[in-house]
Amino acid sequence: MVVLLVVATIIMFVLVDLAIQSYEAKKQGKLVYAGEKKAFVSEEIQLTGSTRGIRGFSENSYRIPMGVFFHKGHTWANILISGYVKVGIDDFAQRSLGRINEVDLPPIGREVKQGEKVFSIKQGNRKAVFQSPIDGVVCSVNHMLLDQPDAIKKDPYTYGWLCAIKPSNLSENIRSMKVAKEAALWLKGEVQRFKETMMARSLGLCPDFATIQDGGEIIDGLLEYLDDESWAIFEKNFLKS
After folding, report:
1. Which residues, in sequence order, are bridge partners of residue 47?
2. What would the pLDDT profile of 158-204 be if each residue is shown by its tens digit?
3. Measured in whole angstroms, how far is the alpha carbon of residue 26 from the centre of its chain?
4. Interior CA angle at 231 toward 125 and 227, to 5°?
């Protein structure tokens, strides 16, 4: 009888311990890998903050929908069955820039070339201009973003699209763009390059939080905490191809 009680007690403690570990894992936000055939998706890692939740992202913590083409100016192009192409800002750019207060959409009917300015976002007095990933004519814009610009941050590849373009040179344009695993490798390199760029400026990430120099990750919206010069450096080195 005593032996049974001891065994039952041990089992109870093991079960309680497993339950606590499971709860802690969910609380910390463990990596979720959706598989190569669909998308690389991960939950943002929660860094400890004193006043607000600060998320971090590493080389492996960003969204890359399969089938979406990525331009080196950090815009994306999703070819629709209709032949039109939806365009937006990639996850790396929106997470680096931080909050988005306003968007400037292109006029319908405007002709654009790959690499030309097509739309911009604003954060206070700051502005980031993005390039068109393809040649064509703007045929539609996402008016919802005028009232809800933060939709870009919630999901840059679906609700956060900025405009649709009727392509005129698509087969040629996509040759210089990245897709699938090639896009994943490129974006991984961009995150590392961004980290190195900020390290070169001897910048900490944010008071009270881990710093790059300490081996910490880049925090979500890092540029929101930095000066105008850092914003300009990012725009010049990452948004202008």
Report:
1. 54
2. 999 999 999 999 999 999 999 999 999 999 999 989 988 887 776 55
3. 22
4. 75
